[in-house]
Design a protein that fits this description.
The protein is an alpha/beta fold. 39% of the residues lie in helices and 16% in strands.
Amino acid sequence: MKVAIDLLNLDENSGGFNTYARELIKGFYEIDNENEYLLFINSIIKDVPFIEKENFKVSRVKTPSPRFIRYWEQFYFSNPLSLKGIDIFHNPFSAPLVFAHSKMIVTLHDISPILYPEKHTFYSRAYWNFIWNFGLRRVDAIITDSVSSKNDIIDHFGVKEDKVFVIPLSCNQKFSEELSQDFVSSILNKYKINKPYILFVGTIEPRKNIQTLLKAFNLLMGTEYRNHSLVIVGRKGWLYEEIFKMVKDLQIEESVIFTGQVAEDDLPAIYQGASIFVYPSLYEGFGLPPLEAMCSGIPVIVSNTSSLLEVVGDAAITVDPLDVESIVRSIVKVLSDFQLRKNLVQKGKFRCSQFTLEKMVSSTLDVYRTVSTKK
């Protein structure tokens, strides 16, 4: 079986789509010696993953500015010659081809532009509405990260249930490795984190509900835990200015640390150094950061929405993401109860062990086989 994987949108940042794509390729590289893989990679990225293997080939494609790649790839792959001899084409970045010339699989992580249009730009909404409404008609299979996302996809696009396959994401093993206290301290010093802290990891944008977290943290400053900082790790997304403005308006600048995008090798230490991880996102197709936090051995608080309950099971405290006081009460409860923290950490570690790379990759290969045998 010859499989083409569209990695034209892969860049060197961390984040959900990039992490998934890299882990998937890593898994194929480690597990599969039988099938042939052709990886389409843009001309900008320097870090080309896993290519020194006989059944892996890379096609370097000269691409425009990253902001235009999503549009441009539709025209590039509309040429039948670009996928000549390919049995299956897989896009792991949620974007099916409108003009397909092979059997096609797309990993559709979530449909937040449809469900929460006010949390996305006009151009983002227009692009995804067009691509999904036309492209999903042509795909042979849709892979998604959770049952919640599967139900959303079926409800909003009317695709057949047997066309959608749920394959949960995996967590990189580096988050489960226990780091020395000296190393953790050195990383925290690098980002000027010098107090106990509450951690959030994710893109700084409205959908992540960071403003509600800031309100909760502001109330926490009136409790015995006022010595804690709030550390927010992630790149700036759409409408990030409102979040920075709220920090200033609440006068909590000295207690809130925005690290920006951190080096991938630094992230495990930042997780392991935290007192607690809080993730009040309004909607997630999966929610990789809470899984990374559980693997890192810290207690987790998440929203009781969308797919997050599927990820954490009974291994986290769940809250209404719009109930500020409930979030504060949960933070105080976890910080003040040693036994609760210990139980959450133990359950989180076990929960983490259920989401392995081998499961994700073998399930994906099963989908490839199913599609390849379709008439």
